[in-house]
Amino acid sequence: MVTGDELSPKVSAADIGDLTRAVAAFGAPRRGVFVACDGRDFTGAGSSGSATIQAAGSTAGLRLGQQVTGPGVQAGSYIAALTGPGGSPANTVTLSKPLNATNASATFCAIRDYTLIRGVADGRYEQVALVRYTGAPGGYGLNQLRAWSIGLPMTTVGTATGAGMTSSGTWTAITGQPNPEKGGAFQGRYIYATAWGAYREWTTGTTTGVGMRVCFANNGGLTLVSIDGDKTRANRLPTAQDMVDSALYPASILVANGGNLAPTDRVINHYNTLADDEVMYDLRLVLADDLSSGSHVVRATAVGATPTGAGAPGRSYITGFGAVSAAAITDPAVALYTSDWLTHFKVGSAYEYAIEQRTGPSGTWTWLGNIHGYETQRSLALRVDGVETDPVPGTVVQAANEITLVRDSWMRHPDLDAGTVVCDALTTYRCDRDGLTVDPVLTWRVAVSIRNGYFGMCPVNSANNVNGRMDRAALLRTPTVIELVGGADTYRGFSRSQAAWLWSSTGRVAALARMLDIDGYTEGWAHSTVGTRVQDRGTGSPPTSKVYFPWVTQDAPNRDVAAGEAKRGTFRLTARFAAAGINSAMAEL
Predict the structure, then answer these.
(1) Could you give the 3-state DSSP secondary structure of residue 120?
(2) Could you say which of 73, 119, 146, 313 would form a disulfide bridge with 131 (CB–CB 3.0 to 4.6 Å)?
(3) What is the pLDDT of residue 18?
(4) Are the C-beta atoms of residues 185 and 293 closer than 8 Å to each other?
(5) How far apart are CA 297 and CA 310, in angstroms?
(6) What is residue 172's predicted lDDT score, i.e. its pLDDT?
(7) CA 320 to CA 263: how far, in whole Å?
């Protein structure tokens, strides 16, 4: 529910009623709050209990930002202390652990990615991934929000190289761990094929839904998926026509143009054009979630298609198969397979702050923060119901009330020397039954001028990854539903509003975004003349519509910030799932 301290004085009684209905439509979950900790232990420290690693460009097993706690936490936690700038070499980090009875034999915890989870409806869970990313400009890196989805619990009951598979064609098996730092393939192995017609087939036990574990990489291609002989039955996958319409693959993949795929065939796209830092060796996907209860035959066939702009046919990757499970997600045998995307990990867009700033009247305007780069993480601390916790890689931690991650980082500007910090950032992520609250506080060490900046954004891009693009939106204080037609960077709605929601007219998921203190955040709208924005963006791969909460924009005067000045912008993200379709419920708000 909405509380008084979250509402600015300019919100009317009618606004409160609209927002209350919007929040109520997203519903309180019936299940708890979890954090999944994905990664591996680092043992390179030896008996000394400490290790020094390079901040940027390192090939070590543990890199800057993968520590789980910061200075001054409880005994037994891992401590991160920055030795640079000015260290040898510059920008190194030293990790150490107190050698006491509690952890004298413990290994360093090099958890790479965190997934915040909360129950929603119909056995589904909302997942928001805090992924380690170093591909941004400036050579720095940090954990940041990169993917948002709805997951379905499944047990992995078939592995790519295990028994019980029917195989045809040439498949190459990789059984060594491909990259331990990045989590690696399921059970350290995967298979791939590049020639059309090679397939792996698996017969399930009794289940109502099936999934696959796959790899995404820059040499990936397409896999055709059939269930019980029906090439259209994998209803949670995109079609071959979707791949063509999105320009990810040429029209030559279709039968009408000499290819091997019908337009309605369901496919997995393994092609990943992001930096090597985001190669995905174990992406879990739901193929279908509405099957009749019983045994089903799943066949994965290599297509041998060449992605647009690639030089050779892409690989079809398989690491395992899954089936719907009745067990709890805290069971180590159970994993969440993605059934519906809100934001796919491929999207090149940030959720959190990005500030375009310069440090002098003739300086270079540069975007700083998160995916825009020039930001280095110093520590990341996990708290479960307020208690500092050292998680175990590969586990799921459950809280009674809330999970909190606190990220400490700093930003530099390319116009200044590497030893000058422009801004300190402390960001708190709180996952509870209301959704995910993101609470960033930026404090500038030097004076800057800002011409564009936001602290919160909500990107959605389900078009190429699941049925139904996010093509509808609504804003508090805007009376009509906004239709997102896929324009090229077109702003379709403006409102001096604290809330907006987006949904798919043909799909099952919706997203609600709220800037809790909108008038305080925008400083009485002195630096933002248009208010909360809904961006209808049909460009990009995949196309990504967004909600922006601007703080400073180019259509208003620059915002000059003095050294020592701090700025806060707290926003909330919440997902809604409706198995029968979401359009009616959202359109009636």
Answers:
(1) coil
(2) 146
(3) 57
(4) no
(5) 32
(6) 93
(7) 26
Provide DSSP, 462-520.
Answer: GGGTSSS---EEEETT--SPEE----SSEEEEEES-SEEEEE-SSSSEEEEEEETTHHH
Rounded to 5 degrees, what angle do the CA atoms 38, 279, 94 make? 55
Q: Which residues contact 69 (CB under 8 A, 6 or more apart)?
A: 77, 78, 79, 80, 379, 380, 381, 382, 388, 390
Give the position of tokens 């175990």.
392
Contacts of 138 (CB under 8 A, 6+ apart): 373, 374, 375, 412, 414
Helical residues (DSSP H) of 184-279, grouped into ranges:
240-245
The residue whose two tokens read 């198969």 is 321
Are 330 and 244 a contacting pair, CB within 8 Å? no
Cis peptide before 557 (omega within 30 of 0): no
Kindly list the distances between the CA atom of residue 247 and the CA atoms of 63, 240, 244, 540, in Å, as whole numbers in the listed order: 36, 11, 5, 10
Q: How far is Cα 304 from Cα 195, in angstroms, rounded to an integer? A: 5
Q: Give the model's pLDDT for residue 61.
A: 25
d(CA 81, CA 27): 42
**Encoded tokens for 125:** 């869970």
For residue 197, the model assigns a pLDDT of 95
Note the pLDDT of residue 65.
Answer: 29
Q: Classify residue 446 as exposed, middle or buried by CB count within 10 Å of its CB (0-12, 13-18, 19+).
A: middle
SS (H, E, C) 522-581: CCCCCCCCCCEEEEECCCECCECEEEEEEEECCCCCCEEECCCCEEECCEEEEEEECCCC
- The residues of the chain scoring below 50 in pLDDT are 1-11, 13, 16, 28-30, 39-109, 180-181, 275-277, 463-467
Answer whether the bond into residue 542 is a cis peptide, omega within 30°.
yes
Say how far apart CA 434 and CA 58 lie, in whole Å: 38
Q: What is the pLDDT of residue 132?
A: 77
With 0-12 / 13-18 / 19 or more C-beta atoms within 10 angstroms meaning exposed / middle / buried, residue 401 is exposed
SS3 at position 14: helix
Q: Which of 94, 37, 89, 43 is nearest to 71 (CA)?
A: 94
Quote the tokens at residue 561.
Answer: 């910030």
Which residues, listed in sequence order, are joined to residue 341 by a DSSP beta bridge? 149
Cα pseudo-dihedral 99, 104, 106, 108, rounded to 10: 20
Give the pLDDT score at 187: 76
Determine contact, residues 495/531, Cβ cutoff 8 Å: yes
Residue 211 is predicted with a pLDDT of 95
- Write the DSSP assignment of 122-172 as a string of letters: TT-EEEEEEEEE--STTS--EEEEEEEEEEEEEEEEEETTSTTEEEES--E
